[in-house]
């Protein structure tokens, strides 16, 4: 028997999108099912394509975080070469990412019977996954950091840590506590005269990628811990395998905020009933 959950502590771009598509499906995925498994939410049936995207993203995160920790200021930095070598090279990074993503699916009653075959199929595609990770990393411009990043926090709760100083910082969580909005930016780069928020995408371009970057930009303008000096965003970038795509930076972040507040209001109204209404898929 499902136990319905209330609204999240913080709304993210993906959760707002899910509610808009179908409030009932969103609520089902957030409910608890103690008779099925110990984790929260309904056991997801993940497609192989979605797993591939997660593998690529995890591989890129592994490399960028290691380069950040080594304080590399470019991909040609001698420290970048030694850092990649210490990780075993891109083939090892891709293989490790496959292992971690598949291991995370263990215990899922809807996926357990498929995991061994999926793991084998992913290993067969490892050369392409390796190339995708390498391509995304090679297209990334880095600024050497001061050696400090926000405290890594794996829970759903935001833990305020410190100001984002100069440099390239992977996986930065930003939050607007008053509006209960949060997001995790793949890479925040603060230079002397610029602030770039970058998001990696392994799939095809989509219209909502720009919306996601604008949400991150709004959060950067609001987060008093990460950005106490109110440094303005100068660049919003979506990084695809074949190109970098620049998203126009809004001139008025308050207008963006008004739109997000309306989305949160609408989302919470949509899931107020138990059970929430169903919106049939248009596919």
What does this molecule look like?
With 283 residues, the protein is an alpha+beta fold. Helices cover 42% and strands 12% of the residues. The protein has a five-stranded mixed sheet with strand order 1-2-3-4-5.
Count of alpha and pi helical runs: 9
Unreliable parts: 151-160
How big a fraction of the residues is strand?
5-15%
Provide the residue-averaged pLDDT.
88
Distance between the termini: 29 Å
* Radius of gyration using CA atoms only: 20 Å
Q: Number of DSSP strands?
A: 5
Helix content: 40-55%
How does the overall form come out from the CA principal axes? globular
Secondary-structure element order, as H and E?
Answer: HHHHHHHEEEHEEH
Structural class: alpha+beta
How is the biggest beta sheet arranged?
5 strands, mixed
Strand order of the largest sheet: 1-2-3-4-5
Give the topology, please:
Elements lengths: L12 H9 L1 H8 L17 H22 L8 H9 L2 H16 L10 H10 L1 H13 L28 E10 L4 E10 L4 E6 L7 H15 L12 E5 L4 E4 L5 H18 L13
Parallel strand pairs: 3-4
Antiparallel strand pairs: 1-2, 2-3, 4-5
